[in-house]
């Protein structure tokens, strides 16, 4: 683990405070004694991005451990000293609420590279004031750090115990008082309603929509359902609740009076945000000094709560609250505002929560308005709505972008558009039709404007004289939509603008209709070139960047965001597009554009069967696969045409949302519907977390223990998980599945190591439950180290954490070891054999004898005595830990002296084995350890294992994980590369590469507000050896 510390200490950290705190107060905050949480005692909340790197993450695995040289240790100590001498703010007499108002820094990564300012001389004690050891000698800096850390741990433990005891006593006192003093009437005013209480005799109790409340309601009792958006407790007798009903929020006041008891307030205080409540209260004018309520959408009224009952409560910890999701990029651009903006990926990963925000609610009200205007306008023009099938016997446009399905053993396809059905309806003399329905495109395009499933607004109509009749109908439809939105959804548009700033759409009374070739010339005349640096041809379709640039040119010249391109080339149109009668290279087709991007493709269709068959054969399409479609034209069809609008795309462009995923309720793109992790045969099926031993019953009531940790490691574990058996680790157990997470409480943090021990499909819920436990019950901050890519993705996408990798598990296939062909390695092994080195095996399941244990313990002591310098570690040397899942290999000389030891730890079936320890004892002949390692790998291969890991090793470069990009990554990568080269961090990785080891990245993960200097210190000291020896 020494490389991890080198990487972290190689980067200086810097913190910068700010006065702005996150808006509101955590509704889950519990009142307690006037003691600050341990995470806030000592270092103030300075949040800075992680700018440090981890490497050589051995997880207790080493081949030949030598101490760091003095020069490097001195450099590291100097940097540590610069961290430890930062000013600290000790607070012991303020409640948590006041701490939350303390300075919060930015989370820019650049602060860590700023030059650290010196301190005045009085910040350091003089030599005369230094404490003395038991022997009367001056205490060393390392000893002082050790004592400080121990004191901090004891202080935190004491504070947590005091907090728990205070809460326990308070709960007992409040409940005892309620049992004695509360009347039946008071008890009926609050509580949780049964889930099946919505039957029987109707109560006919009127409900109100809070956004419709007016001053005329003042003094009246009203009833409504809402969610708890946020709550703030001011005292034991008064609290404020922000109550949300869709996009409207109103302040509720809960105070002890009359039928509202003290226990009512105590109960309400412990409700979670997003809880659904049924509220009865009196409308009143706000009593605030400023005359209005700030922080809610209804400023001139508030609700004095008389009754409140829970109708639904969150059972899983929320990755973020709606209150947090309301913070926009516009908000944080204000000076001093350092609140975190939830990323788009995190929003999409927890879409249901994101859809509760005012912006999302407004977006989909506007989307509904588009459909309403589309239907209303076309109905007024004599169109009828139809619904065409989405299962087809052939692709409607091209087989390359179609989803194939198994239709009772026969091939079928999901409709790429309702095109064929619409035309068949026209051939059926329905004359004018439209449809609103799903469209499927199997295009592997991960862009901001593509979906694999979207909603199409399509129309088809007969042509009387000219195909521009279709164009005029579509043009009037679009303008009807625009007018309807800006007339009836002005409030919603303004709400969206707060999160997605944009200008209103501009369109002209007479829409410009520009021939395609003329538009190309217009663009070429500005000097625009395509992505290959060439002038745009007039007979090929436009690319996306060309469309956007053309939109800019037209906006500048014609002053409109909305226009039409007509007469598209035949090469850019499907087989059914009608050719231009005067130029067969062109078609009677057009595209309509909004803000420089296509929102509709339409035109006249070929209505002659013979011509359609000719076109299909030219495109290698089988006419027999579309007989039903062709029959309508063989039986005669009128001239017709139409077009299709992408609902999500037009919504995205009108509101300038930037990404089409914001405009779809639950997006479907190439990354959607990820494959579920496979369920493999476990080593201990009785210790499954998918089917725990207590399935179908309450574990505690059944008096059943959790699955043994050792068996969970053998079922689901990787190298890092084996460190959880160390005494310093604590283990969180998920109550329903028994899944485990290992952590070490350290300096106000829960240093969490490795992946959860459970099936991968359970990661998200297990992590959510763990984070809630650490925050609510342990009052710690979480830092996550050495986890795999799956956990990094969950933390990044669901919880908006930042992740990066500078290390990787060094894995190899023991059955395909290229080292057997390495001449230098084989020379060493032959030398060991000539020296009489003999290798012995103790297979898994065979307990080592007492005699062997004693001999190995003695040689381990010899090895530890030879270690020099400060040790950095994750695992102690415990050879006989979890013996039932260990395999031992040791070597001896001719006289029986043990010269080396390799211990293989059994991991999950997917990960095989870990070389837990590889110890080269003093006096061993050259080549002895190489021979022992090669023999051990062969023994692992004999068990059928296809993977063995040495543990972690440093990577040559920093790899960004989740939510790290742009300049931040460039700066961090450059810094890490310099450190890795200077401190030779990859030496061990290079040696392992000779054995065929491949890198499997492991990650450092931290919350969105940054890691901060205190987090860096915690990681550094976590890996240090408090005992100055005896560690690996």
Automatic annotation (TrEMBL):
<feature type="compositionally biased region" description="Basic and acidic residues">
    <location>
        <begin position="69"/>
        <end position="103"/>
    </location>
</feature>
<dbReference type="Pfam" id="PF09924">
    <property type="entry name" value="LPG_synthase_C"/>
</dbReference>
<dbReference type="GO" id="GO:0006422">
    <property type="term" value="P:aspartyl-tRNA aminoacylation"/>
</dbReference>
<dbReference type="GO" id="GO:0005524">
    <property type="term" value="F:ATP binding"/>
</dbReference>
<feature type="domain" description="Aminoacyl-transfer RNA synthetases class-II family profile">
    <location>
        <begin position="364"/>
        <end position="674"/>
    </location>
</feature>
<keyword id="KW-0648">Protein biosynthesis</keyword>
<dbReference type="InterPro" id="IPR006195">
    <property type="entry name" value="aa-tRNA-synth_II"/>
</dbReference>
<keyword id="KW-0547">Nucleotide-binding</keyword>
<feature type="compositionally biased region" description="Basic and acidic residues">
    <location>
        <begin position="149"/>
        <end position="188"/>
    </location>
</feature>
<dbReference type="GO" id="GO:0003723">
    <property type="term" value="F:RNA binding"/>
</dbReference>
<dbReference type="InterPro" id="IPR004364">
    <property type="entry name" value="Aa-tRNA-synt_II"/>
</dbReference>
<keyword id="KW-0067">ATP-binding</keyword>
<keyword id="KW-0963">Cytoplasm</keyword>
<feature type="compositionally biased region" description="Polar residues">
    <location>
        <begin position="50"/>
        <end position="67"/>
    </location>
</feature>
<dbReference type="Pfam" id="PF01336">
    <property type="entry name" value="tRNA_anti-codon"/>
</dbReference>
<keyword id="KW-0436">Ligase</keyword>
<feature type="region of interest" description="Disordered">
    <location>
        <begin position="1"/>
        <end position="201"/>
    </location>
</feature>
<dbReference type="InterPro" id="IPR012340">
    <property type="entry name" value="NA-bd_OB-fold"/>
</dbReference>
<dbReference type="GO" id="GO:0005829">
    <property type="term" value="C:cytosol"/>
</dbReference>
<dbReference type="InterPro" id="IPR002312">
    <property type="entry name" value="Asp/Asn-tRNA-synth_IIb"/>
</dbReference>
<comment type="similarity">
    <text>Belongs to the class-II aminoacyl-tRNA synthetase family. Type 2 subfamily.</text>
</comment>
<dbReference type="InterPro" id="IPR045864">
    <property type="entry name" value="aa-tRNA-synth_II/BPL/LPL"/>
</dbReference>
<dbReference type="Pfam" id="PF00152">
    <property type="entry name" value="tRNA-synt_2"/>
</dbReference>
<keyword id="KW-0030">Aminoacyl-tRNA synthetase</keyword>
<dbReference type="InterPro" id="IPR004523">
    <property type="entry name" value="Asp-tRNA_synthase_2"/>
</dbReference>
<dbReference type="GO" id="GO:0004815">
    <property type="term" value="F:aspartate-tRNA ligase activity"/>
</dbReference>
<protein>
    <recommendedName>
        <fullName>aspartate--tRNA ligase</fullName>
        <ecNumber>6.1.1.12</ecNumber>
    </recommendedName>
</protein>
<dbReference type="InterPro" id="IPR004365">
    <property type="entry name" value="NA-bd_OB_tRNA"/>
</dbReference>
<dbReference type="GO" id="GO:0017101">
    <property type="term" value="C:aminoacyl-tRNA synthetase multienzyme complex"/>
</dbReference>
<feature type="compositionally biased region" description="Polar residues">
    <location>
        <begin position="16"/>
        <end position="26"/>
    </location>
</feature>
<dbReference type="InterPro" id="IPR024320">
    <property type="entry name" value="LPG_synthase_C"/>
</dbReference>
């Amino acid at each position: 683990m020494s490389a991890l510390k080198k990487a972290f200490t190689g980067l200086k950290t810097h913190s910068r405070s700010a006065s702005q705190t996150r808006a509101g107060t955590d509704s889950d905050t519990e009142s307690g004694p006037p003691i600050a949480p341990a995470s806030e005692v000592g270092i103030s909340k300075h949040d800075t991005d992680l700018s440090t790197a981890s490497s050589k993450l051995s997880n207790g695995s080493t081949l030949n451990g030598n101490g760091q040289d003095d020069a490097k240790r001195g450099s590291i100590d100097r940097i540590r000293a610069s961290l430890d001498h930062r000013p600290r703010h000790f607070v012991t007499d303020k409640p948590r609420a006041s701490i939350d108002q303390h300075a919060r820094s930015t989370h820019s990564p650049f602060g860590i590279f700023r030059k650290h300012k010196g301190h005045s001389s009085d910040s350091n004690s003089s030599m005369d004031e230094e404490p003395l050891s038991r022997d009367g000698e001056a205490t060393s800096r390392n000893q002082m750090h050790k004592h400080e850390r121990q004191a901090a741990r004891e202080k935190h433990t004491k504070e947590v115990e005091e907090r728990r005891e205070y809460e326990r006593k308070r709960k007992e006192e409040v409940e005892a008082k309620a049992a004695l003093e509360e009347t039946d009437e008071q008890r009926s005013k609050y509580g949780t309603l049964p889930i099946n209480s919505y039957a029987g005799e109707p109560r006919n109790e009127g409900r109100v929509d809070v956004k419709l409340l007016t001053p005329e309601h003042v003094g009246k009792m009203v009833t409504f359902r809402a969610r708890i958006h946020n709550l703030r407790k001011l005292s034991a007798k008064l609290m404020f609740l922000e109550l949300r009903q869709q996009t409207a929020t109103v302040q509720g006041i809960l105070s002890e009076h009359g039928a509202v008891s003290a226990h009512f307030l105590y109960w309400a205080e412990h409700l979670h945000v997003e809880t659904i409540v049924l509220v009865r209260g009196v409308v009143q004018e706000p009593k605030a000094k400023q005359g209005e309520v700030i922080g809610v959408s209804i400023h001139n009224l508030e609700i004095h709560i008389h009754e409140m009952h829970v109708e639904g409560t969150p059972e899983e910890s929320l990755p973020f609250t709606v209150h947090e999701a309301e913070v926009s990029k516009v908000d944080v651009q204000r000076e001093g505002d350092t609140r975190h903006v939830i990323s788009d990926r995190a929003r999409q990963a927890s879409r249901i929560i994101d859809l509760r925000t005012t912006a999302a609610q407004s977006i989909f009200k506007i989307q509904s308005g588009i459909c309403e205007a589309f239907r209303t306008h076309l109905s007024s023009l004599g169109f009828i709505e139809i619904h065409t099938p989405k299962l087809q016997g052939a692709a409607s446009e091209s087989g390359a972008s179609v989803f194939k399905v198994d239709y009772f053993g026969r091939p079928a396809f999901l409709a790429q558009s309702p095109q064929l059905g619409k035309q068949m309806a026209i051939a059926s003399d329905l004359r004018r039709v439209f449809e609103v329905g799903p469209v499927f495109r199997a295009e592997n395009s991960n862009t901001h404007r593509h979906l694999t499933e979207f909603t199409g607004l399509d129309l088809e109509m007969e042509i009387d004289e000219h195909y521009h009749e279709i164009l005029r109908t579509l043009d009037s439809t679009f303008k009807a939509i625009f007018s309807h939105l800006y007339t009836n959804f002005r409030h919603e548009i303004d709400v969206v603008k707060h999160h997605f700033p944009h200008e209103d759409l501009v369109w002209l009374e007479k829409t410009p209709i520009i021939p395609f070739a003329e538009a190309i010339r217009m663009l070429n005349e500005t000097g625009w070139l395509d992505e290959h640096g060439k002038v745009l041809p007039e007979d090929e379709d436009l690319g996306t960047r060309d469309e956007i640039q053309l939109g800019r040119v037209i906006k500048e010249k014609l002053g409109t965001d909305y226009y039409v391109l007509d007469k598209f080339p035949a090469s850019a149109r499907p087989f059914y597009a009608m050719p231009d009668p005067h130029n067969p290279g062109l078609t009677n087709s057009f595209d309509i554009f909004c803000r420089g991007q296509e929102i509709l493709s339409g035109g006249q269709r070929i209505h002659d069967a013979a011509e359609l068959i000719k076109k299909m054969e030219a495109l290698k399409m089988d006419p027999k696969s579309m007989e039903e479609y062709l029959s309508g034209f063989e039986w005669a069809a009128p001239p017709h045409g139409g077009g299709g609008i992408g609902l999500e795309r037009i919504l995205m462009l009108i509101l300038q949302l930037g990404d089409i995923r914001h405009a779809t309720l639950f997006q479907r793109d190439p990354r959607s519907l990820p494959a579920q992790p496979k369920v493999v045969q476990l080593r201990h099926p009785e210790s499954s977390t998918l089917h725990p031993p207590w399935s179908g019953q309450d574990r505690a009531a059944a008096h059943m223990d959790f699955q043994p940790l050792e068996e969970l490691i053998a079922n689901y574990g990787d190298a890092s998980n084996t460190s959880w058996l160390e005494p310093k680790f604590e283990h969180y157990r998920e109550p329903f599945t028994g899944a485990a997470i290992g952590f070490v409480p350290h300096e106000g943090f829960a240093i969490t190591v490795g992946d959860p021990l459970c099936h991968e499909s359970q990661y998200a819920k297990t992590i959510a439950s763990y984070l809630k436990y650490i925050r609510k019950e342990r009052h710690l901050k979480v830092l996550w180290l050495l986890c795999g890519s799956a956990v990094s993705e969950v933390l990044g996408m669901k919880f908006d954490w930042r992740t990066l990798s500078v290390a990787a598990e060094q894995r190899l296939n023991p059955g395909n070891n290229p080292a057997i062909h390495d001449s230098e390695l084989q020379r060493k092994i032959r030398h060991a054999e000539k020296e009489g080195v003999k290798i012995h095996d103790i297979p898994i399941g065979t307990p080592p004898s007492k005699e062997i244990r004693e001999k190995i313990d003695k040689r381990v002591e010899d090895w530890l005595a030879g270690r020099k310098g400060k040790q950095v570690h994750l695992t102690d040397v415990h050879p006989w830990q979890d013996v039932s899942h260990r395999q031992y290999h040791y070597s001896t000389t001719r006289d029986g002296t043990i010269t080396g030891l390799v211990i293989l730890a059994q991991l999950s079936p997917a990960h095989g084995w870990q070389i837990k320890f590889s110890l080269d004892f003093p006096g061993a002949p050259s080549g002895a350890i190489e021979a022992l390692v090669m023999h051990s790998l062969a023994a692992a291969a004999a068990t059928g294992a296809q993977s063995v890991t040495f543990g972690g090793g440093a990577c040559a470069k920093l790899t960004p994980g989740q939510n790290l990009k742009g300049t931040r990554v460039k700066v961090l990568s450059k810094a890490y590369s310099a450190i890795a080269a200077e401190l030779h961090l990859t030496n061990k990785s290079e040696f392992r590469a000779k054995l065929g080891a491949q890198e499997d990245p492991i990650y450092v993960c931290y919350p969105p507000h940054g890691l901060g200097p205190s987090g860096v210190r915690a990681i550094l000291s976590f890996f240090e050896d408090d005992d100055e020896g005896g560690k690996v």
